[in-house]
Amino acid sequence: MIQVPTALARVAAGSTLVLLLAASAPAQREEPLPRELEGVGVDEKLGASVPRGLAFVDETGAVVTLGSYLDHGKPVILTLNYYECPMLCTLQLNGLVDALRELDWAPGRDFEIVTVSINPLETPRLAAAKKKTYLESLGRPGAEAGWHFLTGRQPEIVALADAVGFRYRYNEERKEYTHAAAFMLVTPDGRVARYLYGVMLEPKTVRLGLTEASQGRLGSTGDRFLLMCFHYDAGAGRYTVAAGRLMRLGGGLTTLVLGVWLGGWWWRERHRR
Question: Which of 40, 79, 85, 105 could form a disulfide with 110 if both were Cys (CB 3.0 to 4.6 A apart)?
């Protein structure tokens, strides 16, 4: 796991805490946002298409398009970070790694992860170093083929951020980017299916989110059944029981069982007579 320098942690801790609160589900606020957080957040664009033709550079220095990661028939975890981020990005990606360790699915085999730097000055060499660090932390053989670290030019970065509703800004005084801690789950055909927030992710939330984003291609029958009974609560940051949906499902199951029992009873009575 990546260690955050103590000095940097102290410098960023206060603003990071405020930012994490601001990045959660939309809520009514009476007090104004701090100036450095104005214009920062996430506008959820569920169903929006990720621009497949946007070109970036991967960690090997090769030019790639976002569409190249959507041609494998797998869901994609999209993260917008930057590699020299003093704290929040590290916490966020560490949290993702912690959750993925608890799953029996692996990047490359079951889904893709695309991490895009929002800093146009960062280089493929820096991206390669970050990839090496996180893959070692994940410890999953073969994951190098499924977790991609990209850099790019400002127009492409802005176009991608706008497409998925990710609002960030550069703090000139601190020479840092201010942004939310958010992951976007993208369907195999390139549409935003779900937003996950925060730096600590429940493995079950990631599993159900990937099952939902895969449109049933990933996950067991039990996972797909759970999605019928649960809905994603952005305020809680996890999937919670949908009472109405569960009651309808229970009512339907009761009707089915009763119908089978009555049908069997009628058949037995008919043959007895």
Answer: 105
pLDDT of residue 44: 94
Token pair 């509703």 is at which residue?
A: 165
- Pairing type for strands 112-117 and 147-150 reads parallel
Nearest Cα neighbor of 185 from 205, 159, 156 is: 205
Burial class (CB in 10 A: 0-12, 13-18, 19+), 191: middle
Token code pair at residue 240:
């919670």
The listed CATH number (3.90.550.10, 3.40.190.10, 3.40.30.10, 3.40.640.10) that belongs to domain 6-201: 3.40.30.10
Structure tokens at 120: 């146009």
pLDDT, tens digit (0-9, with 9 covering 90-100), for 13-49: 444 443 444 444 444 455 665 666 677 999 999 999 9
What's the angle, vertex CA 210, arms to CA 17 and CA 27, rounded to 5?
A: 35
Hey, is 134 helix, strand or coil?
helix
Q: How far apart are the first and last CA of the chain?
A: 74
> What is the DSSP-derived secondary structure letter of residue 248?
H
The secondary element (H helix, E strand) that includes residue 100 is helix 88-101
Q: Tell how far CA 214 is from the center of its chain.
A: 12
Element (H, E) at 95: helix 88-101
For the chain, domain boundaries? 6-201
